[in-house]
Amino acid sequence: MRPSPRDMMAVSRQNNQSILSATSCIILASSSVALLLWGTLQRRARRKAFELASLAHRLVKEGSLVDCSDVHVRAKILYAAVDRATRFWFPSSDSRPSPLKSQVGGLSDHKRRVLTADPDFCLKPLHVDERGFREIAFYESLRLAHHNESSLAKRLQIEHGDLPALDELAFACDSNRSQKHSNSNLRLTSCMWDDFAMQLFVQDEVVQGLDSNTRNAWGELRDEVDLLRRLSSFTPDYYGIIGQPTSTSYEITSESYLLLGNLTVNFKKPCVMDLKMGRKTYERDAHYTKKERECLKYEQQAEFGFRIVGMRFYDPAHVDADEEGFVFLDKHFGRSLASTDEVVDAFRTFFKTRNTPENEQRLAEALENNKSVFEINELKKQWRICKDEYRTEIITDLIEQLQCIQTWFEDNDRYCFRSSSLLFVYEGDMSQVNRDVSVVKMIDFTHVQRRKAIDEGYLHGVHNVLSMFEKLIRDEDS
């Protein structure tokens, strides 16, 4: 019996309702899955953005440049420095390192001497504690910024934007890379999902805020790299560290040395002066006993922004000259200078013109023979006798170099230098053709910290040194 039209319509309505019900269930299930996936991707995007922002913040946070309390960081620092030295240091039994005669700072019975080695190396003893790691890390950062500036951004962008901390960036070693590659497939899959989530939620308010923080940190990092690149021209050449056994992975041994360029190697009679720069020679978080001890060393440090650690100049006629004709004034001399006039007089002593005794005798004989002023001046030129009381050519050249350092510190709003020095060197042998050659370099970087402010203390010291040098020039002209 055929169903009636009414029955067929009823069946059709039931089928449609079943289809609608099933469709609704499917849509509801799909929506739930979509919402769940959407929420998961959103959380993933926000988590990734937070990780990037946190890591970027670590790159530029205030304080020490690297976390030396981490044994892995220490191992990377030592690995990079030891490996660097293997490209430059080839010790020979015929030429052993010997004490640097021109050393004027860091002299003490309980301290190792600075050494010199052929052809032009200076071996500075390393502190075995955190200070040693911090100084190595600073020099490594200088080299990285100066010689690998173009590759720095590429290394920061490895692993799909996974920003490593500065210690991992600058001191990554082969073992670290191999560990990364062992899980490369898993990391690649994870990074693909992270990239997709970040692109999908690029307009998310939370992601945008975190992304802005990351970009700001990147900008600060680029500024730091540029500052370090410029600073490298004011520091000695750095070649790594030596005397560090490979078996001692996490600690600096008492036989380790920084391998630096010898700033005095091109001078026959190098005159050297060491100035400890800054109004304070201790860090902000130093123990109060350390602060008190440093302040008592030289109360005028806060006023002048520097103190004379030591000076050594060539004056064979001086009553206190050694067998090589040099006079040495130590840290106690520097600490005895209580006024600006006394400090200026000390600079006068250091830069005083000292012609050879032979030429002084010849000049005295010429004066006794009633030579004219014109003839005397011609004889001075012929015998290469400096007519100025002070080495004005040297002082003028050092002023120009100091002005470059001053400009850097005026631009520097990232790094704070404590207990760092300026080392001045000039030629003391007046018979040399290149007798007016001089150099000033920044040394000692065990207490460098990142701080987002101008280093007013160091800048104040540089300004005062410049003012005193310029006073010497004015006095000579008058």
From TrEMBL:
InterPro entries: IPK (IPR005522), IPK_sf (IPR038286)
Primary enzyme class: transferase
Example GO biological process: inositol phosphate biosynthetic process
EC number(s) from the headed UniProt entry: 2.7.-.-
Catalytic reaction annotation: 1D-myo-inositol 1,4,5-trisphosphate + 2 ATP = 1D-myo-inositol 1,3,4,5,6-pentakisphosphate + 2 ADP + 2 H(+); 1D-myo-inositol 1,3,4,6-tetrakisphosphate + ATP = 1D-myo-inositol 1,3,4,5,6-pentakisphosphate + ADP + H(+)
Single Gene Ontology MF annotation: inositol tetrakisphosphate kinase activity
PROSITE patterns listed in its UniProt record: PROKAR_LIPOPROTEIN
Family, per entry: Belongs to the inositol phosphokinase (IPK) family.
This protein's name: Kinase
